[in-house]
Amino acid sequence: MRAGRRDRRITFLKRVVGGKDEWGRHSPPTWEPVATVSAEVKEVVSRERTSSPQVMAVRAANISIRYRKDIHPSMRILWDGQTWEIKGMAELGRRRDLQILAEMIEVKDE
After folding, report:
1. Which has the higher per-residue pLDDT, 37 or 5?
2. Do residues 98 and 71 lie in contact, with contact meaning Cβ atoms separated by under 8 Å?
3. Considering its fold, how many domains does the chain have in total?
4. Angle of CA points 97, 102, 107, to nearest 5°
5. Cβ distance 43 to 51 under 8 Å?
6. Are 41 and 101 in contact (CB under 8 A)?
7. Residue 6, Ramachandran bin (φ over 0: left; ψ between -120 and 50: alpha; else beta)
8. What are the pLDDT digits (tens) for 14-57?
9. Residue 27 contacts residue 18 (beta carbons within 8 Å)
10. Owning domain of residue 46
11. How far is CA 23 from CA 13, 20, 28, 29, 42, in A?
């Protein structure tokens, strides 16, 4: 794949388990940046899912980056101000590229 097609910048986020506050309560997990890379992003699906009483817009995208061994399916992707969940990954070639299927769910109030 030619580098010119990787015209988007995405950031991979990893989950950091929260600690305990001074009262012994668990603080919620946070997501911290791991790497920002160039990517080719192709949105492939947009649909709506109904989960009473909410309607959710589901967007999916195929994301292609150069191979990195520090990227895992448990991570999230931050792209264009929106957070995407990694649903699947495939290595292309011999550690040449990573193909990632990611999904973003937006809850709509109606």
Report:
1. 37
2. yes
3. 1
4. 165
5. no
6. no
7. beta
8. 999 877 777 878 888 889 999 999 999 998 877 666 665 666 77
9. yes
10. 3-108
11. 28, 8, 14, 17, 46
Tokens in use for 11? 């950031």
**pTM of the predicted model as reported, rounded to 2 decimal places:** 0.79
For residue 23, count other CB atoms closer than 10 A to its CB. Answer: 5
Per-residue three-class SS string for the chain: CCHHHCCEEEEEEEEECCCECCCCCECCCEEEEEEEEEEEEEEEEEEEEEECCEEEEEEEEEEEEECCCCCCCCCEEEECCEEEEEEEEEEECCCCEEEEEEEEEEEECC
Q: Which amino acid is residue 81, in one-letter code?
A: G
What the block records as the tokens of 10 is 């995405």
CATH of the domain at 68: 2.40.10.270
